[in-house]
Amino acid sequence: MPQDTPQNKPIRLAIAGLGAIGFGVVAAVQSGRLPGFEIGAVSARDQAAARARLAEIAPDVPVVAIDELEPLADMVVECAPAALFAQIVGPFVGAGKKAVVLSVGAILGAEHLVTLAADNGGQIIAPSGALLALDAVTAAAEGNIESVRMITRKPVSGLLGAPYLAEHGIDIAAATGPIRVFSGSARDAARGFPANLNVGAALALSGIGPDRTTIEIWADPALSRNTHTIEVVADSASFSMSIENVPSANPKTGRITALSVIATLRKMTAPLRLGT
Asked: Which residues are catalytic?
């Protein structure tokens, strides 16, 4: 039987945000579906509500303020509003630790955190989330990519409240048919839709960058699922991929996103690792 040495001690996870994704990760760890991990601490906007939600599956896990997470864990899973990205990720990568992040679009406005991670031996990890093409794009980027285009179609409820819509006076609440609400760069998409287009930022960072990657966003009242189509032209391959994601309790987030985080964590300790 293995001894309890630093090499095989469980990795302590901090969970920043206890929505559908954060709670899903906690549940996976507590149920034994993610061997090699334990929950070190959780942070949430409403700490009392978080404690009540964790009472049945993780009653002894500390629920603390964001600034208290880093000493209690070896790695953080960031699944909180994008405005909190730097506050969550900075202390971990600055201490030479890993941060698994969902607010990928926030990286485009916080490139200093990548430098901070490089300087201190930390790492920022973005799961594939709702986008199945990242492995192929990452591989193609080792050669020459000519163009990357993504067309996103979402139910109206999945786009309501986006800053870009308010800034441009675009009202989609009463839409009776598909409306193209945005066409432009991935950088501008991430800025205008911070809770909706993390997939676009991840695609851009995997390939030719946020200024050359183009994004179209459609609001479609006939849809019940978030759909993404990616078209890539490269010297190694040209390919097109589409995915329809079943929404979680939060219409802005697909169910597969939480599963992607769990799969990413599993790869970190698995004896066999598949994918780029």
From this structure: 228
Report how many domains make up the chain.
2
Asked whether the beta carbons of 86 and 110 are under 8 A apart, the reply is yes
Q: At 109, which CATH number?
A: 3.40.50.720
Instruction: Give yes or no for a contact between 261 and 102, defined as CB atoms under 8 angstroms apart.
Output: yes
- Comparing C-alpha atoms, which of 230, 216, 245, 199 is closest to residue 103? 199
- Mean model confidence pLDDT for the chain: 92
**Structural domain containing residue 36:** 11-130+256-269
> Same domain, yes or no, for 241 and 264?
no
Greater confidence (129 vs 19) lies with: 19
Q: Which helix (H) or strand (E) holds 22?
A: helix 20-30
DSSP 114: H
**Torsions phi, psi of 214, nearest 5?**
-105, 145
CA–CA–CA angle 125, 243, 202 (5° rounding): 25
Confidence of residue 148 (pLDDT cuts 50, 70, 90): very high
In a domain, 1, yes or no: no
Kindly state whether residue 2 falls inside one of the protein's structural domains.
no
Q: DSSP 3-state assignment of 96? A: coil
Has residue 257 got a pLDDT over 60? yes
CA atoms within 13 A on the CB side of 90: 12
pTM for the full model? 0.88
Q: The domain that contains 172 carries what CATH number? A: 3.30.360.10
The amino acid at 188:
D
Q: Flag whether pLDDT at 5 surpasses 50.
A: no
Q: Mean per-residue pLDDT for 54-66?
A: 97
Q: Tell me phi and psi for residue 47, to 5 degrees.
A: -65, -35
Question: Considering the domain boundaries, does residue 57 fall inside one?
Answer: yes
**Residue 188 Rama label (left phi>0; alpha psi -120 to 50; beta):** alpha
Predicted local distance difference test score (pLDDT) of residue 245: 83
